[in-house]
Amino acid sequence: MSKNAYIKLVPASLKQNITVEEVKELFNFFMTNTAKTGEQLSWGYSEAAFPYTIEEKEDANGNWFYLKGKDPRTHKYILVGVGTEEGEDHTHTSYIQFTLTDISTHGDKGKANEYCKYLAAKLKGELHLFNGRVMYHYPKK
């Protein structure tokens, strides 16, 4: 049974809409920063911080992509997609969805949690974790 985590872009977030390409840019920014950290430490930190390749299938229609683990013993797949949901007051809320498949490993779950927290903090969103808990990264009024 697959598990999902969501980053909802609420009115207090930096953005109210997001595309798959923008999510990929955020992952590229993450990879660049971890590579710089690795250079400062003289250690290959970027490989440990992001042990995936970004893959997209033709039938994704620009709505999702997946992170494919470089070492299948420790990391397999994390699906990442974007979408919108309609609220009770007929407003639309954009979200980023992380999905762990049936074959995802514990390493995938740990990395998915890390990436969710990073993106939620970067976008100042509302993070709904795999375990049902909610973390609020946007400023409260």
From TrEMBL:
InterPro entries: DUF1885, Rbstp2229-like_sf. It comes from the Bacteria. This is DUF1885 family protein. It comes from Fictibacillus barbaricus.
